[in-house]
Task: structure prediction
Amino acid sequence: MQATITLLPGDGIGPEVMAEAELLLDQLARLTGHEFQTHRRLIGGAAIDAVGQALPGNSLAACRQSDAVLLGAVGGPKWDDPDASIRPEQGLLQLRQQLGLYANLRPVCPHPALYGHSPIRADRLAGVDLVVVRELTGGLYFGRKIALADMAEDVCRYTREEIERVVRQAGQLARRRRRRLTLVDKANVLATSRLWRRVTQELVQREFPDLTLEILLVDAAAMHLLSRPADFDVIVTENLFGDILTDEAAMLAGSMGLLPSASLGDSGPGLYEPIHGSAPDLAGRDCANPFAMLLSVAMMLEHSLGLVEEARLVEKAVHDCIEAGETTVDLGGVLGTREASAAVRARISNKIGVGEQKGPVRSAVEAPARSVALSS
Ligand code: NAD
Ligand code: IPM
Ligand code: MN
Result:
């Protein structure tokens, strides 16, 4: 199969982990015969420095014409001036909005070999396998904003339609998993949360009567995520709560450098990115964990390109490295970014056998171009 992929390295460790994603895609292309046409474009601080915009028009245009978009990370102290009229993060938010990527999937499945790296007790981590479906194009992030010298305002707004479409995606996902859906809101205080709760209850009753729906207030959910994480299957929540809870959930897995994500809409390319940021403390030191990025490539292979076997191959290689202790320092290993990523590629080579594979690993299910695989 042929696929066009736009690469947006961004800032800080973004370009470092993106370089490893490119090496992985090159390897997969060589081993399987698939053609991945990749195009690098600017976003974030790098784009502000080069052209004065966080999401230049030609970057957005390239993304629109792609089958999938891969992003490193944006932001950093260089662009943190509170008086600046433009910030790197705006580029990412515009991209998500412009591409209509309203459903952000963030899977969390701690590897038993890493239980010791989590601050949470191993007996609580056993069996944890959850996905947070974060609403990504609404809420406080995109409401009206006022910023005056002594007053500021961020409006939180949601419509029934915005809630229904993301809860529907979460429901369909839960149906393919353990059929448990948890809504996280703050309905004891926020009007938007009361709308989320009403709309979700109605939708689940109407369209997903086979699911068990649990509803938690976000403050309590933050606690339950640590005290009984294995109880969760699919968590659906608004934009800001999803952002915060997934950094917390990364600690179940053991590192911010482990969690991938997929951002999907009803049509057009999906966006794939690690949930971590530009990690200015690690940038330029070849020590950032590349696994979240490699696992984001796996999500891209599966969701936008339909290459499910290749996705599993990448995931298995990452998991085998974790099991063998071939990791970066955040996970107790001694490898640098490039070495840890090379270890993953070595395992893929061993698995397929260099030179043996001429055609695609799997040809039964070719993905439709520009597919988004949330809807079943
Ligand atoms: P961060 O995620 O960059 O870092 C938080 C902590 O996690 C740091 O201790 C860092 O060292 C560690 N970490 C992050 N990625 C890692 C990796 N791959 N391997 C090992 N450790 C890793 O969050 P922050 O420091 O709050 O934010 C830094 C900048 O990144 C800010 O400008 C923020 O706006 C931006 N940001 C961007 C994105 C994105 O582009 N998607 C996401 C989050 C934050
Ligand atoms: C994330 C990040 C972004 C967000 C920032 C960089 C805008 O934290 O993807 O989790 O808040 O959505
Ligand atoms: Mn975040």
